[in-house]
Amino acid sequence: MAREIYWLMLVVFLSAVQVVPYAVFRIGKIGLAQVFLNPLPGDDPFDQAWAHRAYRAHMNSFENLALFAPVAMAAVVSGAHDDYTAMLAAVYFWARLLHWPVTIFKTPILRTVSYFVGLYATLAMAWHVLAAYQA
User: Fold this and answer.
1) Which domains does the chain have, with CATH numbers?
2) How far is CA 68 from CA 43, 47, 65, 119, in A?
């Protein structure tokens, strides 16, 4: 398996797991049965700020995964993957792993840095794939 795919699978797993904190919060707040029904009138699913931040971190993971996944797959499919793209994929994973808790715990500087490190890794990999295509 290409290392980029390995890191991509870890990112997918991380994104899927990020639902757990705010899902547990919702279950504790309204009960397991009500979670599967329509929201109650006046129900604020994220009346705790941390739960809303956890939700936003989760959604942000999906938004960024939509950019990273095709770039990582393009690197592998095109044959443009190498040690550099593998390193970028690992950097992306670690940046996203850091982004999750620092968003929940409202750590603004680290949140922004981790976001841009992940974005840089995605864009650098895309540039690498495009450059290999042009060569």
Assistant:
1) 3-39+46-134 (1.20.120.550)
2) 35, 31, 5, 8
> Residue 82 contacts by C-beta under 8 Å, 6 or more apart in sequence?
none
Share of the chain above pLDDT 70, in %: 96
pLDDT band with cut points at 50, 70 and 90 for residue 40: low
Determine the 3-state secondary structure of 50 from DSSP: helix
Average pLDDT over residues 78-107: 98
CB 125 within 8 A of CB 75: yes
CA–CA distance, 104 with 48 (Å, rounded to integer): 11
Arithmetic mean of pLDDT, 35-61: 85
DSSP code per residue over 83-122: HHHHHHHHHHHHHHHHHHHHHHTT-HHHHHHHHHHHHHHH
Tell the residue number behind the tokens 């809303």, with chain if given.
52
pLDDT at 132: 93
